[in-house]
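Hi all, posting the design record for the shared folder.

TITLE: backbone redesign
STEP: 1 of 1
STRUCTURE INPUT:
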């Protein structure tokens, strides 16, 4: 049984683009970028499992690969693919995993603030207190950008499992995809998120662009610039 994620749609005249939000975030964070891209793409912004607007019950589908399969199910269900995938932070890991699992459903992958050093935990163990700390930090930064808090809408089990999964993913030498064309980063060092620059890519030919003055949400802070980069990467 396919459980299709709930999503917001920003209709446009062009091909399908799916925007994937980050860990402990929400699809609404991507609204500024979606609006910019809707002039060229038919944009979908789903809620990821364990986050707001997940949709149908998805069990414990909280790992990177499991969430990637949910995204691929969505692309197949709307029957407008293949899709450009744009992922923020955890969403970038999910986009790369989706491109690896079913490359025929993906045209290109663009990652925004997705680093192989996204999270560090001794021995790969994620302490529940660390999960709570990171949720609080993420929401504090999001509120500083005018984004509504989602802390009360998060599944604690999902947050812990997805954090553990992205840690394992970040250490996988095969985590990349030839479809990965662009990695966008803000300034490094945000709350334990180390934007790795050229080291934050997994395949030759991935263009790395830094947007000075941005934090972990370039798509909120400078959506028009990010949209221009996405469009150039997808058409190049």
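Okay, here is what came back for every position:
SEQUENCE:
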């Amino acid at each position: 049984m396919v459980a299709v994620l709930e999503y917001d749609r920003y209709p446009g005249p062009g091909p399908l683009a799916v925007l994937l939000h980050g860990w402990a975030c929400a699809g609404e964070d991507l609204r500024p970028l979606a609006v910019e891209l809707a002039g060229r793409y038919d944009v979908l912004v789903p809620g990821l499992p364990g986050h707001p607007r997940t949709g149908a019950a998805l069990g414990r589908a909280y790992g990177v690969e499991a969430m990637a399969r949910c995204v691929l199910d969505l692309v197949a269900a709307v029957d407008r693919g293949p899709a450009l995938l744009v992922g923020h932070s955890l969403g970038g890991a999910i986009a790369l995993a989706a491109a690896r699992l079913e490359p025929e459903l993906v045209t290109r992958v663009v990652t925004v603030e997705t680093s192989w050093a996204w999270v560090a935990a001794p021995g790969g163990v994620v302490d529940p207190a660390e999960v709570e700390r990171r949720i609080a930090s993420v929401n504090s930064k999001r509120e500083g950008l005018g984004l509504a808090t989602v802390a009360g809408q998060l599944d604690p089990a999902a947050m812990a499992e997805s954090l553990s999964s992205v840690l394992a993913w970040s250490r996988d030498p095969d985590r990349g995809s030839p479809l990965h064309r662009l990695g966008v980063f803000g300034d490094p060092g945000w709350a334990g998120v180390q934007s790795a620059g050229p080291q934050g890519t997994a395949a030759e030919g991935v263009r790395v662009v830094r947007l000075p003055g941005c934090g972990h949400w370039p798509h909120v802070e400078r959506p028009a610039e990010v949209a221009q980069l996405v469009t150039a990467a997808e058409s190049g």
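COMMENT: The chain has a mean pLDDT of 85.
Let me know if anyone wants the other runs.
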